[in-house]
Amino acid sequence: MDRAGAVALLARAPAVHLASTTPEGEPVLRVLHGVVVGDHLLFHGAPVGEKMDVVGRRAVISAEEIVASIPSYFVDPERACPATTFYRSAQVHGTIERVDAPHLKAAMLAALMEKYQPEGGYAPIDAEHPLYKKAVAGVLVLGVSLERLDGKAKLGQNRTPAEIGRLLDLLWARGAPGDARAIDLVRAASPSLAAPSFLEAPADATLLCAMGEADADEATALLVGTYWCEGTSSDRIRRSLLGSSAWVGARDRSGALVGTARAIADGARRAWIYDVIVDDAWRGRGLGRALMRLLLNHPAVRGAETVLLRTRDAMGFYEPFGFRTRHVHRTDGREIHEMILARTEASGEAACPLASAGKGT
Q1: How far apart are CA 292 and CA 274, in angstroms?
Q2: Which candidate in 90, 214, 270, 284 could, as Cys together with 9 as Cys, close a disulfide (CB 3.0–4.6 Å)?
Q3: Which domains, from first to last, does the chain contain?
Q4: Smallest Cα–Cα separation from 226: which of 278, 264, 265?
Q5: Is the distance from CB of 153 to CB of 189 less than 8 angstroms?
């Protein structure tokens, strides 16, 4: 994993692991709340106790995240040996340094609060602020330089393209929590790999199975100004994207987001399609159809008996997927078509709240 990726992993890790020794050679192993400030990984504690014993001593601080569990039968129908785990990890090696400068200690505490209490609700931390001056002076802040930093991503890069392709198909079919994100990470680690069939897209576009925080601002910008988001603030649009059961997207060769679609689903009875849109330059090229195929087959959506949406003028786009208009509503003199895709018999069941979907896909 490149340096930027390793730093980012350490920065976002809910906790990091410290391994060091006391002056007597006894091992020290602790779980810490760590933050990246500048070119150091910093943590805090009381100015007494075991943490004081490691000041000036060599240490390793690490973080890891599980990407996906790969069962043995994904690779071999009989042998247990192929069972493995895809993961990403980072380790920083160095000497534990004590930070005494008040402004650096305050910066560490401010970063800590921003990471673990991002909603705010407190006065900004400043070394000279009456609320914090005594606390900043009394807290112990320690850190390790990020100069010696190693990152590792085990994402199937050692396998053949055919083996990786099979793993992607099986992850998509399994659809366990995290599998959609794992597919995107595995593909990013092997960029020359041909797209599996469920991710086929128009030339120069790449489909993404699991959109997230890093995509939210671009997706919000695509949706601001659409008729179905009229009167909805950018912040509310952004939060609705992040709260989706399934959220897929597409990026062009430059990496720009050019399409998005999402759904709210209960996994069994109902799914509601929202916010299907592609960038103006990509309309009429089949990208919207590719996004819809992916969304309808998403693990969170494909088990739903009925899929619902509302649209003002894109009925012809949705009908080839099996959607049919079941009601027409008139709002402010405009017709809104309520459409349904019935995958199994579900007669007599009450309709649930419906979603909005856009045109131009």
Answers
A1: 11
A2: 90
A3: 3-67+82-153 (2.30.110.10), 200-342 (3.40.630.30)
A4: 278
A5: yes
